[in-house]
Amino acid sequence: MTMGETEFVIEPGRQDVVMVRVFEAPPEVVFQVVTDPELIPRWWGPHVLDTRVDRMEVTPGGRWRYVNIDAQGTEYAFGGVYHDVVPPERMVRTWEFDGMPGEVALETVTLEAVPGGTRYVAQSVHQSVEARDAIVKGGGPRGGREAMDRLAEVIAARVV
Predict the structure, then answer these.
(1) Predicted TM-score (pTM) of this structure
(2) In a domain, 69, yes or no
(3) 129-137 and 140-158 helices cross at what angle (nearest 10)?
């Protein structure tokens, strides 16, 4: 894997999606950017949507809620609960889209120092293969790739 590329592992018959990206910054910087509510709107989600952070309590038991807003003002809310937070190595949280109540995924993000940067791995485990496949068919990887590209820009601006 080279810097600047986002890879996805989406295997048939499995309930998970794994997204991997290497950023040119140490884990402390990557962790700080992905846990700063002021920076989330600059990178979270596809570039065609604006993002508002309604809640972000990055601590075990803390809740999070982000809202994507399209050009017509339609809102798409996502949220969940943080279960584990180990700066700058790992975050584990639930993930639920308001438009699909009850379809909760468990996301584990790990940050590992590698030569020249940080390997970011996000594994989302869904309740069923069908639920995972619906996210994939709905453009999840495309949105994830755009978000990772935007995140790389925010991180690059912090590494001077």
Answers:
(1) 0.93
(2) no
(3) 70
